């Protein structure tokens, strides 16, 4: 599982790195030589979508979403576990249809391409759809771990749910 999570982190990080390189390179070329990188805008938008989909997968598995935990903090460990189970179930219930619809979008792009280089949008959408699918699967894995009484933390360790580890 650690290798899979590492690969997911790498995919999200590489997408963000490529966005930074593409944007910085385009700015440098535009100001220094009055030229632009072809499709820099389309490319950065598509890469951002890929990074978001793969990042959602990690945030879902580790339970590191942005949240306000007024209710969770006031509960005992058993109640906290139930809140985590309900929250992860709702998350999974939204991620599975989202992943399906992104795959539908991949199938419906046809021969659409980027503006300048006419790169097929299917490639970008498929990478995002894979990330959305992984997010849905990791939500299911997290749900199983929560049900069993343990959940992964952001540092990669598995903590028993005793109230000290929060995962919703």
Describe it.
It contains 5 helices and 2 strands, in the order αααααββ. The protein has helices spanning 2-33, 40-62, 70-74, 77-108, 121-148, and strands at 150-152, 158-160. Helices cover 71% and strands 4% of the residues. A two-stranded antiparallel ribbon has the order 1-2. It has one domain (2-160).
Distance between the termini: 20 Å
Q: Tally the helices: what do you get?
A: 5
Total number of strands: 2
Radius of gyration: 19 Å
Tertiary shape:
elongated
Q: How many distinct domains?
A: 1
Give the quaternary arrangement of the chains: single chain
Strand content: under 5%
Characterize the main sheet: 2 strands, antiparallel
Mean pLDDT comes to: 88
Going across the biggest sheet, name each strand in turn: 1-2
Q: Which ranges are low-confidence, i.e. pLDDT below 50, for 5 or more consecutive residues?
A: 161-168
- Residues in helices, as a percent range: over 70%
Please state the structural category. Answer: mainly alpha
Order of helices and strands: HHHHHEE
